Each structure stands twice: as structure tokens, then as C-alpha cells.
Amino acid sequence: MDVQGLMCIPYWLMILVTVVLLLLMYTLYKQSYFRSLGIPGPTPIPFLGITIDIGKKGLHETDLNLMKKYGRCVGVYLGNIPQLLITEPEMIKQILVKRFHDFTDRPHTLEDAKFMDSALSLASGEHWKFLRSTLSPAFSSGKMRNMTPLISRCLERLICNGKKMSENGKSAEMKGLFGAFTMDVICSTGFGMDVDSQSNPNDPFVVNATKAMTANLVGPRVLLALMFPDFQRFMRGLPIMDQSSLEFFKEATKSVLQERRSNPSNNYRDLIQLMINAHKEQDSNTEEHADTPNIDSYKKRGLTDNEVLANAIFFLLAAFETTSSLLTFLSYCLAVNQEVQDKLRSEISKELGKSQPVYDNVFKLQYLDMVVSETLRIYPPATRFNREALVDTEICGVKIPKGLDVTIPTYSLHMDPEFWPDPHKFDPERFSPENKDRINPFTFLPFGAGPRNCIGQRLALLQAKMAIVGMVQNFRFQTAPDTLIPPKLDKGLFTKPVDGMFLRLEAL
Ligand code: HEM
Question: Which residue of 219, 294, 413, 478 shows the fewest CB atoms closer than 10 Å?
Fold first, then answer.
């Protein structure tokens, strides 16, 4: 092209410049969101927002720095997606509990395979209400009590494994040890499967769960979705979760379903049986129910095959990473705080002696509860969780437009020195009966809060408490030359140690 006869600009260059300008306008428009609302936050990098910081420092440190610099209500961009980070307890209470009807759903920041939309955590509106009310009875205290013998069997193997590891005097890797235990518990309490991943570190359940939880989260597919959130629906064909592991779990769940249907007389007490019982044959393959807008039509039906599958898989993945991390950090905190470990051992031997931990006794151990709570405060397994504003609204004077992703950065909340003096210090006394009443419940949220909190909380605590009691009865956790103090945390959404956690187990 001849511009005023002065120079010749090739068409391809003109097109390139136009595309770059349009893209720049797109990102500048997207990233002007909080400026117009008057909400403080860091100047975003075009297209990337705070993702470079997260890549360099990790989510924990990035969130903490943001809170320190901008306060308890910060506007950030994950790529081009605006997120409001809130660590103000009164605002959190309004969002999670008081004004729940305006914040019922989770934002679909990353749209994955359509099949997973039926998982409780990702479902929206009436569909979520239907799933939550159908699945909640499976997690009642009565059902958990019934699951105790299944957990006890896995605990026996954990102790056996620990004994083998203690024999050579070398350090043992705790994430692997507790990861395998957690997987055995999920397989038996969830699917009635007797998987012995503790004896087989390459067990396909553990390998695939690890793969599914770490897959592609820093890959180009995720980056593209964060940069162009308006075009996500066109990217659904490109999955985020590792497809081979998803297929593995689908097939495993399907074969359990088939077996249960062909052998209906067996009296199973696991989660999948409870889901099957909530399943009505006539609806089993009608996926369009998922879009039915009316709660009354949900009342008339049970769970579809798709819903049973998606939720079984999600429970397995949600439970694996979180519960094994809690146990890993519990063992670490006990190893570096021997006086706490001694006090816990005294409580256990006074209340239980050498008898097996079960549902009715572990929940009575007061000091154990304090130790578990303090571990969850310093190392919350889920670094963040979020909600979506369903209407234009205002909370504590902050304007929140419809569609905004409202994120609670749990780690930053738990590290706020105003609520938790000397926040890095491991001090279970913060949760003693005298001190507990002084804690604002919206400053301690390892399992979230309100009607959409963690449905598996009771199962996670039962399993973690039984495991730690069994381990403390049989071993002393000790640091070793290769124990990293403090541990280096993974940069992602789950709080876990990078490259494992090495401790010495001394058999008692
Ligand atoms: C220490 C272990 C665990 C921790 C720290 C944890 C943490 C969380 C958190 C923070 C949330 C979000 C809550 C909210 O938005 O208010 C959540 C949701 C959820 N968790 Fe857990 N979790 C754990 C174990 C489990 C287990 C064992 C299961 C299932 C067997 C499970 C299943 C779920 C599900 C299905 C949701 C979504 C609930 C909904 O949207 O209605 N979690 N969890």
C-alpha cells in the first residue's frame, strides 16, 4: 500500500498492526474494570494480569503481598479475568452466609469438559441445589460412623508401612505415605474398592489422581482461557484436565456401577452406593435434566448416570490432594514442635490408651482438635475458593457488579497478623476452649462457610484424626537432615510441599 506516495507498507504489516492494536484495546478494556469501580489493586500487565507474579512467587505469597499492600479488598486480573480478593471478615460473612442467594454459584473461570459440569462443585443454580440436597445425606455423621471400619483397615496398613519405613533409620517421604493412605480410604469409603496403593507406590489410582490434579494448569490452554475469557466456550473441545486420567476414573466408576446393578442385594455403605440409591432408572440417561430450570422437576428424579460419574470422580480428586496435604503438614508440625507432640501423645494415651481410634473417640480429643485446627490455619489445603455475584449489588459499601468473581484467599486470611498475632508461629493454644470463643469464625475458613461449604469436611476430619492418632500411638515424628524447615510450598492452588516432605519415623 502506498501511503501519500511516501512509502510502501505491505498489506500483511497493516493487518498485523491492526490486529495488535485491537488486541491491546481488548486487554486495556478488560483491565479497566476495577478502575471504574474505584477498587485498589496492582497495575496489571496486559493480557497477563498477576499471572507472572504467581508464576514467580506462587499463589500464597502473591495473595499475601497483595493484601499487605492494598488492604482487605483488592482488585486483580487473572490474565484478563477480574477477581475481587476479599479478606474482610464482615464482607466474607455477607457473601458466604447472609447474602448467599446473591452468591450461590462458583464462577466458571476455566471451562473444562462438559461432563464435569454435573460435579457438585461446578454445578450452578437449581442444579446445584438439587445435587447438594441429594448428596448431603451421604456425608451425615451416621454415615461417617458406618465408614469407620473401612478407614480402620486402611490405618492398619498405614502403620504397617510406617513400621517398614522406620526400620532403616532413614527419613521417609510423608506426602507419598499419606497420599497412598488417603487413596485407599477414598477407594474403600467412596467406591467399596479394596485398593492397596500403600504397598504399591505406582498404583494407577494414585498415579492418575496426581496427574489429574496437576495437569495442564500452566499450559497454553489455560493461558489462552485467561487471556480471552469471552471466547472460552470455543475452547471447550481442548480439555484442561488430563484426559487419560479422567478416562481411567470414568471406567473404574462405570465398572463399580455395573457390578452393583448386577448384584443389588449386597449391603454396601460407601458413597457410590448412596448415590446409586438416589438414582432412578427412568432418568438415568437423560442429560437434558442438567439444564432444567425448575427445582420441582428435580424433585421428581434421582441422579443420572452422568451425575453419579462426575461426582464420584470429583469426590475422589477433591479428597485426595486436600486430605493427604493436611496429614503431611500435621506430621511436619508435630516433628518440629516436639512439646506439642508429647502433649498430644499424653492426651491420646490418657483417653484411648492403645485402643483403636474410631468415630466416637477421635472427635472427643480436645487437644487433637486444637492441633488439627492450627495446622489447617497455617497450611490450608485449598489456598483460595470463590463465588460469583449473581446480581449487581453492594457489600459493606463496595460495589460488586453481576458476574464478578469474588475470591477468598484463605492463606492470606489465616496469615493476617491482626486476627492471628505472630501468624507463622505454630500455636495450637489459639484454639483452646478459652481462646476459641474469641475467634471470629470468618477469619478461619479451611473448609469455606455457609450452605456451599465443603461437603466432605466431616469425612476429611474423621480420616485425618484417626490416622494421626494411630501414627502418634505407634511412632514419634522427628525431623531429619533432609527436612526442609520451613517447607517450600507449591506455587499452585493446593498447599503442598514442593518435592515432598521428609521426616524420620521412630517406632515406639
Ligand atoms: C482437608 C480436607 C479438605 C479441605 C481442606 C477442603 C476444602 C474445601 C473448600 C475450601 C471448599 C470450598 C468451600 C466454599 O466454597 O465455601 C470445598 C468444597 C468442596 N469439597 Fe472439600 N475439602 C477437603 C476434603 C474434601 C473431601 C474428603 C471431599 C469429598 C469426599 C470434598 C468434597 C468437596 C466438594 C464436593 C466441594 C464443593 C461443595 C459445593 O460446591 O457444594 N472435600 N472443600
Answer: 294
